[in-house]
Amino acid sequence: MTLLSVDNITVRYGRLTALRGVSLKIEDGETIFVTGPNGAGKSTLLKAIAGVVPAAEGAIVLGGQVITGASPESTARLGFSMVPEGRHVFGGLTIEENLMLGAGMRKDRARVGEDLKQVYDVFPMLRERKDKPAGVLSGGQQQMLVIGRALMTAPRLIAIDEPSLGLAPKVIDQVYETLLKLRDSRGLTLLIVEQSSTRAMMTGGRMILLRSGQVVLEGDARTLARGDTLKKAYFGYG
Ligand code: ATP
Q1: What Cα–Cα distance (Å) separates residue 146 from each residue in 9, 66, 107, 203?
Q2: pLDDT, tens digit, for every residue of 99-111?
Q3: Residue of 11, 20, 43, 165 with the most ligand 1 atoms within 8 Å of its CB, for mutation
Q4: Which of 19, 42, 194, 214 has the most ligand 1 atoms within 8 A of CB, as the residue to mutate?
């Protein structure tokens, strides 16, 4: 079943066109990597789906409902959760308070406690430190926290912007292990933005290459990451 369908969207920032006629479909339970050079429009794509930036043209449909022009609150209510680049935690709030912010809009309060327990089961390190201010966490731990917070919105689709950025390879491994565990145990659909294709090659799934605001290549992540086509398309030659 198609969970998300992005149909021919264009996004502009003033006179700059950041996305031009981008289309993609994501099936339930799939893992999709969006890759591409700096300024290709990767973050803009996530923001447009989330309703943070408006699409000037095109349509976005999530779980059968048109969400083009919807607010970030409504897209979150419909099951889309975005983890923006840069690991924004509230350093003065405790870890648990940060997690509970994710559940702020939920009406199913009874399930929130259960989900918090599940997040702690996935990230025992967060449980151990739940009453500590989030500011004490390392970069990798903060990445876990923002993923945990996104999970507290009870998403069907979680979109993560550059989860590896600035993390040590070992920590990146842990982040990915957790993501894949969540995908398999909770049937979570993953949309991951990464500039490098290394992780996509290890994780598998589908890969979409954006360049200058357009989808220039799409296919099986492992196959693409192994061959020359991706490199050539990435840098715009061949
Ligand atoms: P990076 O990997 O560097 O984050 P990206 O692929 O995520 O790049 P975007 O951040 O989506 O690319 O940016 C796409 C284009 O839109 C770039 O040219 C960028 O400078 C521009 N842009 C992004 N945000 C804004 C904004 N708020 N106002 C004006 N231009 C913007």
Answers
A1: 28, 27, 21, 21
A2: 999 998 787 888 8
A3: 43
A4: 42
